[in-house]
Amino acid sequence: MNELDDERRDDELVELWRSIPAVIAASDIVTATLRQARARRQIGIALTVFWVIVIAMMGYFDLRGFFAWRGAATLLLVVTFAKWVYDQYGGYQRDQLVTNTAPNDYLEAAIRHARASLRVARMTYSVMPLGAVMGYLVAPWLVESNAKTGWPWPFRIVVISVLVASIVGLAAWGHREATIKRREIAELERRRTELEISL
Amino acid sequence: MTEPPRTEHFEAIVGEYAPMVTRIIAAFESRTALQRELVQEVFVAVWAALARFRGKAGIKTYVARIAHNVAVSHVRREVRHPIVSGEVDLADSTPGPAQRAEHDAIREALLAAVRQLPVGLRQVVSLHLEGFTDSEIAAALQISGGNVAVRLTRARDRLRNALRSIA
Question: What global pTM score does this model have?
Answer without folding.
Answer: 0.73
